[in-house]
Every structure is written in structure tokens, then in C-alpha cells.
Write a structure and sequence with these properties.
The chain has helices at 3-10, 16-35, 40-62, 82-105, 107-130, 140-150, 152-174, 179-203, 205-208, 216-243, 247-260, 265-275, 282-295, 300-313, 322-334, 338-346, 348-351, 357-372. The protein is mainly alpha-helical and 373 residues long. It starts with a helix and ends with a helix.
Length: 373
Amino acid sequence: MRPERALIYLLLPAKPAGLIFICIETLGFGLCSLAGLFGLPVLVILLSWLFSYGYVLLEQVAHGAREPPVLALEMVNPLAQIRPLLHLGLVVVVFFSLRFLSPHIGLALTLALGALVFAALPASMAVLAVGDAWWQAVSPLALWRLMRALGSEYLILVTVTVLCGLGLVTLAWFDAVPSWLRQALAIYAWLALYALIGGALYERRDDLGLEAIHSPENRGRAVRQHLERQDERFIDGLFAQLRNGNPAGAWQAIEKDLNEHRHERARYEWLLERFGVLDDQRLASRLAQDYIHRLLNHDNGRVVDIVRDRIARDGGFHPGTAAETLRVAELLRLAGERAGAQRLLADFSNAFADAPPALKAAAQRELQTQRYL
């Protein structure tokens, strides 16, 4: 993850929806501190809100969102999601366990265990967000697999976690800012860590097998699906005009569509495939004539394939002009398709009655050549 990308994720909670939530939480924590023990139940609820909001933020960012979620009713219900409560309980158990063990194992070992837990915290949060079972959040194997999959991104997560922790401890130690501001900064840091974890999951979504909703791949898929629906409606309209006996109107619509697609070969191929299955082959043959006109002398091999297919489907088919028909007949002869070449030239004079006499004579000579081969 590039530094500028990490900065984008870290700044997400600073957007309006995130700031409103931080203000609500800060005000609530301040009131709880004034209420003493009576504020303890409200404090637990506020903490559950913080964890719930954080997980929603993590999941949305992991799916490609670039805005923090708006506080919703399901986020303020402590029982709506079990994962935030599990994570809250996990943090509380680890914190009090270290405090209980500290007098017995010494300061050095306590700090070492604390650092290890601190380093595993982002992985635990990520696993709890994307894992199939809650117990994976405390599984060393699951945590290690996620750390390895994230690679350098996980080093960034640990670095940011450590820096945020040291910064908050320093502010509290020196009492440099008011308590309400420390609380607000702590809430912001916690949400920023969630956003950064979600960003790391998004950046490594291919390695982790995550299907991000707002990823470029899904946006591209959505665009393709929209275009496919448009194409199906276009084809349905053409078929309707054919059923109503209006092939001229259908061809006008096709010409407009080809102009919009800049006469791309892929568009011709797709239309030929769709029209080739119809009982009425008039549109397919007219389209083939236009396509052959553009391909001739540029991709003669494809021209031969198109004409071979058209003759098989439409016995009366021939290219659009006399000169093109004569040239295609020569190409068919060179490709060993003498029967097809002769079929094109057999009614040349009738199909192109207004063709120049020299061209008619050339077509007759080519036909004789075909017959004597």
C-alpha cells in the first residue's frame, strides 16, 4: 500500500459522518465520567456503539467505499451484531489479564506480551470482520495466515497502531490536552485503524479472495451487464420490426447502432451471430454485405468465411456490388471453394444488370475458369 493510499484511509473518519459520530461518542463519554458509577451502563452501550460502528466502517471500506457510514439504528443496538461485542469482550479480557499478571511476571515480560497483543490486534479485527467463525479472531493460525496474506500492508497497520498508542499515552502522561480532546482523539484513532484495516483488505482483495462490492472489477461488471441489457433491448426491437414487416426500419436502426460503435468488427460479429439464427436471413445478409465491403482486401480470410456461411444460410446471397462479387469469387477459388465461387457468378448478369459490360465479361471469364479447373 502506497503512503498516499494509507493516508486516504486514515482520513476517512474525518469526513462529516465520521466526525458527527465522534462528537456523539465524546459527549457521551464525558457525561458518563461525570455520572460516576451510574454512568457505567451507558458507558458500556457507548463502547458497543464504537465497536459496531467501527466494524461497519471496516466492512464498507473493505468493499471499496470511500465515505464513512451514517449512524443507523442497527448500529446503536448492542445485540444487533455479535462480533463487536465479542471483540469488546476480548479487549477487556486481555487488558485485565495483563494487569493481573503484571505483578507476577515482571514489567519486562508484561511489556513484551502487551506488544505482542498490540501487534496482533489489527489481525484479530480483520479476521473477525471477514472470518467464518468468531473463534478465528483468537486463533494464532488464522491470525498468522492473514498477516502473511497482507504482507507489507500489515507492517503499516502495526506501525500505525503503535504510533497511535504511543501518541495517546504521551498525551495522557503529560496531560497536554483536555480530557475530552484526548477521548475524541482516541475515538478517531480507533476508527482510523478500522478504516486502515478495511483499506488493507481492499488492497489485497485478490490475495484474500474477497469480492469487493465497489471494486473496479465489480464496477466494470456492472457496466458490462448494463450494456448487455441495452443490447438485448436493441435486438428485441429489431426482431419486433421484422415481425411487423418493417425490415427497412430495422436496417436503419442497425446502421445507427454501427455508427455509434464506429463500425467496430466486434459489433459486426456480434450482430451476425444474433441474426444468423433467424428464419428470415435478410438482415444478416444485408449486414454481411456491409461487413464484407469494409473487410475486403484487409482481411480476405474472414471475407471467405463470411461468404461461405452466408451461402449456406441464404442461397441467394452475394456481396453488395458487382466488383466486390467478382473479387470474392476469385478469393473463393483461391481458397478451394469453387462451388461457392460458381454460385456467386452463375447469376451475375441478372443480379447486376446495370454492371459495366467489361465487368460482366470478366465475371464470365472467371466463371469459365472455375468450370475448367
